[in-house]
Amino acid sequence: MLAAKRLEEHNICYTVLLKSRRNFLINIYQICRDLAKELKKNRPDLLWTSLPTATFYGQIFGKLLKIPVVSWQHSAYVRPYKKLLFYFMRNLTKLWVADSENVAVYLHERFRIPYKKILNWPIFSVSSTQPQSHYKPGEQPFKVGCLGRLHKLKRFNCLIQAAHILKQKDPTLEQKILFYIAGNGPEENNLKALTQTLGLKNVIFTGFLSNPEPYLASLNLYIQPSDYEGFCVAAHEAMSAGLPILSTPVGQLQISVKPGITGEYISASNPRDIADKIYFLYQNPDLLIGMGNNAKAYVQKNFSHDAFLEAARKFTKITSQFL
């Protein structure tokens, strides 16, 4: 429970209702029993739910106990077997909070939720302490990096394969272009084994970074070759550091990454396409720097701290009408 530490640091109380995964029916009974007990003991003015399963429980008890429900949706994806239930219960939620423009569109188009019942409140705002990337062609190696959990869906193996393709194209590029992979996760050993098998000396694993800001500022190009993403905070942090983005058109990145302006789209299943895009930007530093400046301007305009607070004020104004 990564969130627990932060809650405790701010003296925010919480109760864990399901501490183990047992039989499905037993879980339903336990959650319903404990949730009903908790809500009757400490009746809230508002129920905030997150993720479809928790939202279903919240909608049911909100209806039974006449407590208004607000549901946060952080992904433009609902598992197929939950979609029908999600659709039929959508009106039990008074307000849907989307974590991005992409999710807001998904809720409206896929589940026919009116935009007047959707508040776009991104989970990201530009950090005032984020140092900036400074690329000096010819004076330093070209640094390409990514950041995230090392999972199959992130497709970091394709980045390693792209590094191998560039080495085959020109062996001297192994000293000129460096690849950084930041994070940890279940695919770490497999990715390291692939790097060793391909004989690559320019792929560096940094491990988990509690503060990624200096790391992002040290890069010259950020890449996100994922099969799937939600908002993708890491890529937007990279944009705030003045980095252009090479990304698959997934999640919010299909909106934030504007080809030729703030970055370029890539195909996760095509390492050669990734290699070609990296090499093209390496060969065109003025274009690279210009895209990075555009990326920074984009996030400063759309994800500023003031914009975040304005969304919070809208949330307070809307939900006060429910009480």
Automatic annotation (TrEMBL):
UniProt keyword terms in alphabetical order: Glycosyltransferase, Transferase
InterPro entries cross-referenced by the UniProt entry: Glyco_trans_1, Glyco_trans_4-like_N
Enzyme Commission number, as recorded: 2.4.1.250
Organism: Entomobacter blattae
Domain Glycosyl transferase family: 138-296
Residues that span the membrane, as ranges: none
Protein's name in the database: D-inositol-3-phosphate glycosyltransferase
All copies of domain Glycosyltransferase subfamily 4-like N-terminal, residue ranges: 24-118
Enzyme class (EC, first level): transferase
GO molecular function: D-inositol-3-phosphate glycosyltransferase activity
